[in-house]
Amino acid sequence: MNFDVVVIGSGPGGYVCAIRSAQLGLKTAIIEKYDTLGGTCLNVGCIPSKALLDSSEHFHNATHTFKTHGINVENVGIDFKQMIERKNQVVKQTCDGVDFLMNKNKIEVFHGVGSFVDKNNIKITKKNGETTQIQTKNTIIATGSKPTLLPNMTLDKTRIISSTEALTLPELPKTMIVIGAGVIACELGSVYARLGTKVTMIEYLDGLIPSMDKEMGKELQKSLRKMSLEFHFSHKVTSVVNKGETVEVKAEGKDGKENVFEAEYCLVAIGRKPFTDGLGLENIGIETVKGKIPVNAHLETKVEGIYAIGDVIDGAMLAHKAEEEGVFVAETIAGQHPHINYLLIPGVVYTWPEVASVGYTEEQLKTQGKAYKTGKFPFRALGRARASMDIDGIVKVLADATTDEILGVHIIGARAADMIATAVTAMEYRASAEDVARMSHAHPTYMEALKEACLAATANRALHV
Q: Judging by beta carbons within 10 Å of its beta carbon (0-12, 13-18, 19+), is residue 345 exposed, middle or buried?
């Protein structure tokens, strides 16, 4: 069996790369170690977490905002098993969709662990131990990532859990400790807090979503506090022990004092690390650097014809970043000249309110010594936000002090995840804040907040504050 392209890993980066390769006329195969396609994102990441986020938001609204809207409901309860079952169905439908796309594009699918025999031969080992060997001209490594653990910590997957287990708990916890305060921690923490779980977050750094603009973290904390989340920042976790029915977590505060926390479950969400186990990289002379596979500007490794994309290489661990890289590599192999602007790959936190960001943060511009100006606009000043009772949040626009070019956009508020696409579009075309400010935005919409923030950045011209 000879192929032009073989992709190892079927997450968003891998399966999109396979589809684009097939579209370009390349004979393509994809290898996936698990029984279903879709990788972490579709099976135990982006898709199932969003399903639970939506379910928990419906419950939260039924118990907190319906009455104000004039909707009276009684005896609102949670069928947690049904909630998990609906999530499972969403996952199945999405993964089945990937199967359909593989068939549609005539992509050969192999299930098993793919490992390099040499640069042009890949061995596929099935669960039952049977092996198959295929040949390829080009290989794309798209094996993704797995949860990071603290030193000397072991996930027992019953009480001490990762995000994977948090999506399939057998019961709705009364209490939960979340170690970490990044994207995954905030999203899953908010899911359970909405459902009534007492959630305590413990973070080594000094705020929420530390990789994003600092002001976004502060605003998000205000919103999550309304759901009774408890925060302990600047705390170093020193011990996590399963006590049987509970988990005991010890953490040292910045004052040096040891604090003890206890809950039914402890979710460890401190980040993810590249997954390259079992690839046989040593057989082709590829060594990882801090766990990641080094690549050049074409995303090609030191071995000609072998590429790597997504979480296994440098950069943000985001599904859409991996997708862009998958298309980039496929088109490069086909002789085209694609381009990725990594600065303009947006990041999103799917809490409510949502947080979305693209471009430089204010902290980065200060570090660079870049002269910039800032425009802000609060959601509570929007008629649309008041109508929907989604008044938490702001839009923050950072623009070059001299040229007015937009350098960064940071949004926390309703539908921020969708709003950020407009900012990406404007920045791809190197728009100025005034360019966006002079474009007509439909009224009443959330997008008016972006227009107003751009007006604010342009000589403080915001109209509605």
A: middle
